[in-house]
Amino acid sequence: MPRPQRHRKRPLRIETLEHRRVLAAGLPLGTTAHDTAEFMLGSVTVTPIFLESDSSVTNQSQNWTEAEIDEVLAKITEGVNWWSDALDQLDTVHSLEFIIDDTYARNPVEIGYEPIDRVSNDYNKYVGDFLDFANIDSSLQIDDGMFEFNNQQRELHGTDWAFSLFIADSSDDADGFFENGGAFRGAFAFAGGLYVVSPSTRPVTTFTHELGHIFWAFDEYAGGADYDDTRGYYDSPNSNAVVNPTRVGDQEISIMASFDLLVAAYSAQTSPASTFALIGWQDSDGDGVFDVLDVPLNLQGSGGFNAETSQFQFNGSASVGTLPNRNSSGRQSDITLNEVSRLEVSIDNGNWMTIAEPNAYTAAFDLAVDVPANFSTIALRVIDAETGITSDVWNATSTTPLLPPSAPLRGYAFLDTDDDSNRVSGEPLLPEVTINVTAADGSALPSGDYDAADVPLNSNLVPVDGITITGRLIAFDANVQARTMPLINNQPLFHVFDPQLQVWTANLSNRVSVEATFDEPTSYVEVDVVGMKSGGASYARIEAYDAAGNMLDRATTDVRNDLDGKLSFGEKKTLRLRDASGLIASVSVFGHADSTIGMSAIRTGVSSVWTTDSHGGFVLSDLPPGEYQLNAIAEQVTFGFAPITVNTAAGEPIKLAASLVDSPRHNALLVFDVNEDEEVTAVDALQVINDLNTFGSRTLTRAEILGNKIDVTNDGVVTALDALRVINYLNLLDNLSVPTSEPLAGDGAPNETDTELTSQTVEEDFTGIDEVLSAPIKWVAPSDENTDGEENVLDFLS
User: Fold this and answer.
1) pLDDT tens per residue, range 672-686
2) 160: closest CA among 67, 39, 14, 51?
3) Is residue 5 over pLDDT 80?
4) How many angstroms separate the CA atoms of 53 and 200, rounded?
5) What is the CA 325 to chain-centroid distance, rounded?
6) Which helix or strand (DSSP H or E) is residue 578 part of?
7) I need a labelling partner for 584 at 20 to 30 A (CA). Which of 115, 530, 694, 747 fits?
8) In the chain, how long is the greatest CA-to-CA distance?
9) 476: three-class secondary structure by DSSP
């Protein structure tokens, strides 16, 4: 039935509503103000609105009494609680609670009409009057106004959902029905969390039946929906419709069917699986958790055992997951009631113990857990207390950092001091190791980057990096250009040409969207979006499809980091999509829930550069199945890795074992020859000293691997010891009268008593070298042609 423009009149005066309960923590994750009854689980605010004529428009024929009010409220209570009892019959983990706000029942709302004496289509008049009565924004149409009221009610009572019932007093009416000539004579409902309209004398089964509609159930009797009509969170078909040529056997008893079958279902507190699926009650795997909430939680982070403190340190985050909402009649908001209730730990496969209780949709952790010094394994997970749904279990040992079990390419980096490719206690894990990922043959991973700021403005777009961008307007394609947006600092955004309005628009919505198709399917896509609703909030959404048009993944403005998911005008965010099989062939970008957003860039392909975490662990996510080459580079320049080839099918953690290598700033051929002129003179010491005066003592970084060989000790660190080794060597040569051009080599370890020299003559002819190396420094002046920096040397030594 079409909903006409809301009828307006001077607001009626009423007393202020009493706040009966403190507002709860928040709405279900992913909901907008229009998502007030998407699946029938959790808690529901029910607001009966009893209508009383004041004879200002038509004569009054009915008059509520206290007894009548009590009787109707009892029927409504019994009707809604039937659904709670029916849920209990299914033996699931779920609960369902109804809270009835009787404010507008105990004090009926006065209107100018007697509803039962009019046709049912006149509902819009008294619903509009009630919205005035409740002080709802007068610019809103009836449906939007009722969504606003219901949303306020669920916020007031701290419930997950809310709907209303408009009850026309029919206690003194001849037949208890609306007048002939309207679309309905008895009760009717507007699905998806809006409201029911009903005569007061309808039986309790009527209120039970209409509540099914509120949560998307269809009529199953003759004249109702067809057997292949679909809606609800799973977009389920109305398979129990009275006429279904595909059904084997008779129509089942159902609360949504005709009278006899409805009464039988009411008595048995049951309905068919297809009916329950429409309201969200579907358990595909039979584990007692309905599909809508049977979605794993997400756990991320890094952790490792600290042997010095006998503590396991963990730093990470967790969030809930959502099932894509496929409701063809709703807004398709992806919603969950699940929470990150607890972070739990298990040591050596023992009982799970709670170490944190965030009770929120997202959580951050930074903690240390006391563990036995001789423990073998430790496991972490997060759990939703209501359903028992958990995240993947992340595992660690005393020698391996925390890693997820399911990621195909995961592992850790460590210094392999005994060269056996396995980490043992005492071998340090290596954070901040850069891992460069290529294809197995060494070629770069495929990627693409299409940015509105990088293409010619006001020109039709051409493919970039294998990405083709097209505009979509419901039934046809449209051109796209990059154009500046003056209201957002002239930021370039993709604009779609609207042939109906003959304008270029950056406002992407349910009507106007952008589609990006890829020459080669990919496993990862990210899109930069911006809010475009001036003075209001926007929700951005992207959806990924395979080549056959099947939806693979969906993301709505990152609710994991921003719980309400809203974008203010000009606010920028990045949305991401993933497919482990690498089948993403196209992406659709648009505004969700009747809002508008803009798009500035799209990127495909996974990163080719990764970094180990603070405990040396890493997870290479979003890589499609296959072989890859890993080239690891430690920040410590004396730690070296050999390239390795890995396969996503291997399953076992990857061990990146670093070995000790020569420092790039060490002269392995002539240890003390810092300037590489094949001689050892005071200038070599001067080179080290001047470097220390300029840059100070430090660990060498990858950014400074080129230059003089100042790392005399070959440990990746530049200190005064490097200069001292050169000076002591010069003192030794002076005492022995050995030519300074004699090739010398050594391991360069920072040990002042080290005596190893490769000059066989020195080793054989001189004893007591330890005493010489530890003796007071004797300065050897530079030659006449090498006097630069002498003052700096003397200053340093003083």
Assistant:
1) 999 999 999 999 999
2) 39
3) no
4) 14
5) 16
6) strand 572-578
7) 530
8) 129
9) strand
